[in-house]
Amino acid sequence: MKIYGLTGGIGCGKSTISRILQNYGFQIIDADSLTRDVQRTPEICRALADAFGRDILTMSPTGPAVNRKLLGNRVFASDSERAKLDQIMRPALKREAQIRLKACTAPAILDAALLFEAGWDDLTDENIVVLCPEEIRLTRIMSRDSLTKSAALARIRAQLSDAERIAHADKLIYNTGDISSIYRQIIYIFGHPASHAAY
Question: Quick check: 157 pLDDT over 50?
Fold first, then answer.
């Protein structure tokens, strides 16, 4: 079973591409979903509250949960705070990613914005990087997350540059918002949906 890494900067439209690939029959392991699940575990809730303040915790129907927006505002303003968050989250996330990948019964997509930064590319056979103009990314992030332009830029700058991602990429997808172009590029990389299992 082949595992593809799918990555790109925040706001690049990775989720759209991931949904298309899911329709092709790929099994999707989504890092955002992993993060939400891991941040609901008691040990991670405790570790994050100890590191960033108990006010980042909220109550959900299933128990304590992390206020992701508040946590994000707190850590993206500081390299040292972001490093502290990574130290807590990355080992737990990678363990969970490995568990879910082992359970896959079809070719898998590991969808992770921080694929290279977190060292998850050692779990994949090939890596696909999604690229998108920064102005489009800013518009998406500001609208989706209700952020100011400076806050959205801080999130972009906190990640690898496109040049750094390209250096690690096996394949590239250029997303300018033209869905037909995305489909053409996916077909070029993976072939027709009916033939994807060969990959």
Answer: yes
Give Cα separations from 91 to 88, 99, 100, 119, 169 (angstroms): 7, 13, 15, 10, 23
Rg of the Cα atoms in the chain: 17
Q: What is the pTM of this model?
A: 0.85
pLDDT digit string (tens) for 116-130? 999 999 999 999 999
Cα(198)–Cα(43) distance, rounded to whole angstroms? Answer: 41
Question: Alpha carbon of 2 to those of 21, 28, 43, 165: distances in Å?
Answer: 14, 12, 32, 21
Q: Using CA atoms, how far apart are residues 83 and 95, in angstroms rounded to an integer?
A: 19
Q: Class of 3-38+97-198 per CATH? A: alpha beta
Distant-in-sequence, close-in-space partners of 100: CB < 8 Å, separation ≥ 6: 29, 34
Domain ranges in the chain are 3-38+97-198
Which H or E element spans position 172?
strand 171-174
Pairwise CA distance, residues 81 & 77, whole Å = 8
pLDDT tens column, 6-51: 999 999 999 999 999 999 899 999 999 999 999 999 999 999 999 9
Compute the distance between CA of residue 183 and CA of residue 185 in angstroms, rounded to an integer: 5
